[in-house]
Design a protein that fits this description.
2 copies of one chain form a homodimer. By secondary structure, chain A is α/β, with parallel strands linked by helices. Chain A has 13 helices and 12 strands. In chain A, strands 2-1-3-4-5-11 form a 6-stranded parallel beta sheet. Chains A and B meet through helix 4, helix 5 and strand 2 of A and helix 4, helix 5 and strand 2 of B. The structure holds a DNA duplex.
Chain lengths: 344, 344
DNA sequence: TATGTTTATGAAACCGGTTTCTGAAACCGG
DNA sequence: CCGGTTTCAGAAACCGGTTTCATAAACATA
């Protein structure tokens, strides 16, 4: 069954294509009521539905939001960051009746090469999910007329719309929770240096220390990766130190590191929170189901996706200029992995 | 920067649009080599990239695969079925250099209403992810010329391409693992009646019993839902029975039910596998990280997504007719939740 | 009634490609 | 040197819409 075009409707209603188009686009003033009625009736009868691609070609919005994901992960959906963000995007698009087109690339270099494809008219705007800072894709996109927003860190350019989680305040809150209980030797387990989030979380850590009047001790800053093994490794290294050099509390800069840290402490038979207190930044809520309850700052990743869609639609339809910066704060969820330090 | 069209290239190269089109589509025979060179050079210089939407309108493939998801879940990505399937689709599309457009709907009724949108030329074919059997959407789609495949159960119609996990054989394998250890009273914890998978898993259960020469005892068939609470509830109900009516082994028809069952057994202080053996069908690999190791049949959900894309591309480009049925078998992973029953 | 102004609608151009049709030039053999 | 093929490339139609422009009809005003 070939689908019916605007031409079929026009013929059947005895009017021109232009008139049908006018009626269906609600340019009411220009069409006589009775013509209008007739066209609508015929369109209804024929089950006419305008072709979005043709419409797009003629300059109308496609009602489609593009998402660029560059990853080599075997799984997008179970990635603790991408998964929830994508969820937020899908859900918001569903509510706003937008289609979601996903451009999957192996890396941002490839994304840059495929940039013309994104501007092909497929979508009305783009969400770049954590583009690497060293990829020229952002600046290449700025030269085009396609609206876009960035999820992740890109704060330097005032003309970019950026949505990110507020890593500084999240780290601050998590460390503050430890300091307020009287901990004076608080270690931080950082992630990979190549992510901007590492620096931000470290900054929040320093701020909380400073505010609590605690010294910044480089020996308590452990760098590794955002994975369980790294958390475990660094925790062991810390705990094998002589008592005076050992921290009484750990701040884990993501959920995976925290899980690794807990495992290490368990195998070292160090009790949480009696002997060591722990807080963390948690991306996904699955932290809540751990055997050892973990006090953590829960990051609103879904919300990031939702905000990205909203901001983008504002740019597309309301003509809001790019440049907005949204940092979403996390929320401290107290679950009992923090106690006062044992007097030495 | 307005993007350059085929017209710009044509003018600059001193040829007609038709010629440019021919050169870029590799219809080589019809273009003189030197013209060809010149056009290619100009296209290169201008950074020309054909507009996919215009191309689509003119009848060329869009290189885009559509995915219809109807759900009311708060999260697609963390759904134990949708998540991995979507992963497989995204990954395969990445490899095949296809875009992925996702149509999100609240339910299949809504999907039916939006069906014309799917046929809008946005995509070359459609993957319906577990459409409900009672929605007319499948038959409505058959009347269109848009190729599509179904993920999930729809075996009745020989003209449909269907990709699903082989629930019957998976259940069979999981129950067989129990029967082979000598269990004679094996309970099944089923999911929701509205899913076809329930019936299939029940059938596999019956086959395994029959093959082992065990009677089918309705009192050992527990129906509930595919959620932890249901698994816990049914397990408790079973274990509170007098010893002679109690099963010595449980077959949990999905991962969530299994988790619930394990929790219930733990709180009842019933040891696994010493007092009760358990096997399950597991959608996601996270079963592997449970405190209590669980012998389970792991279902290849990612693969389902990948197969769906392959089948669809076969239909679109190779003209393979619809009708293929692919049932992907699971794989038994032995982790130690099965032991011989204790002699009564 | 003649003139000016709306109002309603169609014709045609356009968006950016593809493809069919057509004809000119080059090439072939006799 | 001529008629018949081939090769190459442009003109034009088409895909399915939107939008500008032009015009006929209806209406208002003098």
């Amino acid at each position: 069954m070939a689908s019916i075009s605007i031409h079929d409707v026009a013929v059947r209603a005895g009017v021109s294509r232009a008139t049908v188009s006018r009626v269906l686009n609600g340019t009411e003033a220009l069409v006589a009521p009775k013509t209008r009625e007739r066209v609508l009736k015929v369109a209804q009868e024929l089950g006419y539905h305008p072709n979005a691609v043709a419409r797009g070609l003629a300059g109308k919005p496609m009602n489609t939001i593009g998402v660029v994901l560059a990853y080599i992960l075997p799984s997008v959906t179970s990635d603790p960051f991408l998964g929830p963000v994508l969820d937020g995007i899908l859900d918001k698009n569903k509510r706003r009746r937008q289609k979601t087109v996903i451009f999957t690339e192996n890396d941002w270099q490839e994304a840059l090469e495929n940039l013309p494809t994104y501007c092909d008219g497929h979508c009305d705007g783009l969400i770049l999910v954590i583009p690497r800072s060293d990829s020229p894709i952002v600046h290449a996109l700025q030269k085009r007329r396609l609206p876009f927003v960035i999820v992740g860190d890109y704060r330097e350019d005032p003309n970019l719309t950026v949505i990110d989680s507020d890593n500084v305040s999240a780290a601050y809150t998590a460390v503050q929770a430890l300091a307020q209980q009287g901990h004076r030797r608080i270690a931080i387990l950082c992630g990979n240096r190549e992510f901007a989030s590492r620096g931000q979380r470290l900054e929040g850590y320093r701020r909380a220390l400073a505010e609590a009047g605690l010294p910044y001790d480089e020996s308590l800053v452990m760098t590794g990766e955002y994975w369980e093994w790294s958390g475990a490794e660094n925790t062991e290294a810390l705990m094998r130190r002589p008592p005076s050099e050992r921290p009484t509390a750990l701040f884990c800069s993501n959920g995976r590191i925290a899980i690794g840290a807990l495992q290490a402490l368990e195998s070292l038979q160090i009790a949480v929170p009696d002997e060591v207190s722990i807080t963390a930044i948690a991306e996904t809520p699955d932290i809540a189901t751990l055997r050892q309850p973990l006090t953590a700052v829960q990051m609103p990743l879904r919300l990031i996706g939702e905000c990205a869609v909203e901001c983008l639609l504002d740019q597309i339809h309301a003509g809001v200029p790019a440049g907005e910066k949204i940092l979403l704060p996390g929320e401290l969820v107290v679950r009992g992995s923090v106690a006062r330090p044992t007097p030495a």
